[in-house]
Design brief:
heterodimer; A: alpha/beta; Rossmann fold; seven-stranded mixed beta sheet; 14 strands; B: alpha+beta; D-amino Acid Aminotransferase, Chain A, domain 1; six-stranded antiparallel beta sheet; four-stranded antiparallel beta sheet
């Protein structure tokens, strides 16, 4: 098991013939991802690395069938691309694009919600279930199959943490990048819920950073009864919290999101906090130890 | 990017919200002349991009010409919240009967715009802590606020004059949408003794990303740490001696945290997802231009970034002569090719997956005490 993607996921790639789309398609195919179609307006009828390319998402879905779309599209057309994807009936989207204005992202998110779909991103590295399916831009060599779920606010830090775990012989169930923008499609708590329901995820690592309230809300979710053990790392101890301008931000965002506050929230909820990325491996090892597993409702029975 | 109060007020006025009459001045003589035109008493407000000016002595009421001149001169010579003002806003004093708070902002958790209305004044955050938080009205970003819904919501708050407050909130929305703002806030929104409702302050922050996409310039906000942008990369000078080039803000902050245990970062540099040969050369040059930099750590991943192309840019700068140690941890797609290029250029390559190791190698080379 895993969350969001697995070996049966049929992936459509929007922007497959662009410079980034083409390079990333090569890497994803090498990981065994089932890429069933690509879309680039004006390139319909061509073939990219064995993948048939269509002008419209609707045609691609009708002819090839697809569960999920991965979008490499410029910021200026992201909203139209998402609308077209939803119209074509796809209900799971991963939006890699960086640099989408937040007003546009709010409209995108609302379109996704209205359609009852799920969006990961924008500004995300995507989702990988190692050994089965990679829907994103993460370098696959650092990911190995195993019991650790990772949800990360930072893309490259999720690579670092996965690489250190893999080097220590500890694999990952699924690794998800939340997206680096102030508004994203899927909330951190939703991802923790999904990991909590996944029987093969035995420990979840949350990679957080200064600012926002994601870590505080994650700590609250743990306090409310998350069963799978969670541990956290928060980057940006030495950074100044990005104090929102005016009072409106502070009132809505419940504070400025300093790292010390996040660590305090985790500790109050009983979540171990790693002092540095390198400390995560030892904490995970401890949480995976048999005495911990036996106290977990997700104890693996062999 | 935050706008100055007078810029924000101009936008509010264009949108149909009354603001006090005022003039922007740059010296004490001008302030006195403006006061004469506007009629005393006047309010002097330093134009710095920081909150809490009222508590920091950045807002004063003056009652005669000489007082206006002397206070204006003092205010223009004194930093407010660490920022030295170059401009003062001189405004006609308005007789306030009640102070309200009105804003449009973004709720990042629900991912939608939010209208806020409540009691105002300089202690708004204290109100929130004691449970007198503003009323909230979530807006569908696809449709914008529906006037009848806003009217019903404002009516439910009991705040008066309800009709005018509804109209003002819809005007604030118009500014929020047109400017692609993160926040449009009026505090206080003053109900005057004659019943008029006037925006006495204006805090508007616009989305940098939207401005960049539209090709509009960003302005230095005058704060301590200056944020610079070059082709998708973000740079902040920090004054220490360890230069940093990282792909990704999270990795960059984690790297800074590790360095800070033993030394002080010279900068923060995040490349973004668009590494090219030119971008990495530019990054190297900018970091090496930091005064006092004694070593550089490159910590990048080849995910979306072609790090082997970026390595060529690093090599270009190394070829021109670099007299401080440069250590690189460059992992991911094309890592072996990247290592070859960097090693040939004289960069120390760390093949370990832990940033801890790369930091240690560089700081040891720089002979920083452990």
């Amino acid at each position: 098991m895993s969350i969001l993607v697995n070996r049966d996921t049929r992936v459509l790639i929007q922007g497959i013939t662009g410079r980034v789309g083409r390079a990333q398609t090569t890497y994803m195919l090498a990981e065994g991802t089932q890429i069933v179609a690509g879309v680039t307006p004006g390139k319909g009828g061509t073939v990219e690395q064995g993948v048939p390319v269509f002008d419209h998402v609707g045609d691609a879905v009708r002819v090839r069938g697809a569960d999920m779309s991965l979008l490499f599209v410029p910021p200026a057309v992201a909203e139209d691309a998402v609308a077209e994807t939803l119209d074509a009936g796809i209900r799971m989207l991963v939006l890699i694009t960086e640099g989408i204005p937040v007003h546009t992202t709010m409209r995108i998110r609302r379109r996704v919600e209205d359609a009852g779909a799920r969006l990961v991103g924008p500004a995300t590295p995507g989702v990988i279930t190692p050994g089965q399916c990679k829907v994103g831009i993460m370098p696959a060599r650092f990911f190995t199959p195993g019991p650790v779920g990772i949800v990360s606010r930072s893309g490259t830090l999720s690579y670092e943490v996965s690489a250190q775990l893999s080097a220590a012989g500890i694999g990952q169930s699924t690794v998800v990048g939340l997206g680096a923008d102030p508004v994203v499609g899927t909330d951190i708590v939703e991802l923790l819920q999904l990991f909590d329901e996944d029987p093969e995820t035995r420990v979840v690592v949350l990679v957080g950073e200064v600012g926002g309230t994601q870590e505080e809300r994650a700590a609250r979710f743990v306090a409310q009864g998350m069963r799978t053990p969670l541990l956290a790392y928060v980057a940006g101890r030495c950074a100044v919290a990005d104090v929102p301008m005016g009072h409106a931000g502070a009132l809505v965002r419940e504070g400025a999101g300093a790292v010390v506050d996040k660590i305090a929230a985790f500790e109050a909820a009983g979540v171990p906090v790693a002092a540095s990325p390198g400390c995560i491996v030892d904490l995970v090892r401890r949480l995976l130890a048999p005495d911990h597993a036996s106290s977990s409702t997700h104890a693996v029975v062999t | 990017m935050r706008l100055h109060e007078y810029e924000g007020k101009a936008l509010l006025r264009e949108a149909g919200i009354e603001v006090p009459t005022g003039e922007v001045v740059t010296d004490a003589q001008e302030a006195a002349r403006a006061a004469q035109r506007l009629g005393l008493p006047v309010v002097l407000k330093v134009q710095v991009l920081a909150g809490g000016r009222g508590h920091a002595g950045g807002i004063e009421v003056t009652h005669d010409m000489e007082q206006t001149r002397s206070r204006a001169a003092a205010m223009l010579q004194r930093p407010c919240r660490g920022l030295l003002p170059t401009e003062l806003l001189v405004e006609a004093h308005v007789p306030i009967a009640a102070e309200l708070y009105a804003a449009v902002t973004i709720d990042p958790v629900r991912g939608a715009p939010l209208l806020l209305l409540g009691a105002g004044g300089i202690d708004i955050e204290a109100h929130a802590r004691t449970g007198v938080a503003p009323w909230q009205h979530l807006v569908n970003p696809l449709t914008g606020p529906v006037a009848a819904d806003v009217a019903a919501w404002v009516g439910g708050t009991g705040l008066e004059p309800a009709g005018e407050l509804t109209r003002i909130l819809l005007c604030l929305w118009a500014v929020f949408a047109a400017q692609q703002a993160l926040t449009v806030e009026v505090n206080p929104l003053a109900v005057l003794t004659d019943g008029r409702v006037v925006a006495v302050d204006a805090v508007i922050e616009v989305d940098d990303t939207a401005r960049e996409l539209a090709g509009l310039p960003l302005r230095d906000t005058g704060g301590g740490a200056r944020r610079e942008r070059y082709g998708g990369m973000t740079f902040v000078e920090l004054g220490g001696d360890v230069g940093i080039i990282c792909s990704g803000a999270g990795l960059g902050m984690a790297t800074m945290d590790l360095i800070s245990a033993r030394a002080t970062p010279a900068n923060f540099l995040e490349t973004g997802g668009g590494i090219t040969r030119e971008l990495m050369a530019c990054a190297m040059k900018r970091v090496l231009a930091c005064p006092g930099v004694r070593g550089v750590l490159i910590n990048v991943y080849g995910g979306i970034n072609p790090i082997h192309e970026g390595a060529l840019g690093v090599a270009d700068v190394m070829a021109a002569g670099v007299d401080v140690p440069v250590v690189a941890k460059a992992l991911g797609n094309h890592q072996e090719e990247t290592w070859e290029i960097l090693q040939a250029a004289g960069v120390t390559v760390v093949a370990d997956v832990a940033t801890e190791t790369a930091v240690k190698v560089l700081l040891d080379r720089m002979q920083v005490a452990a």
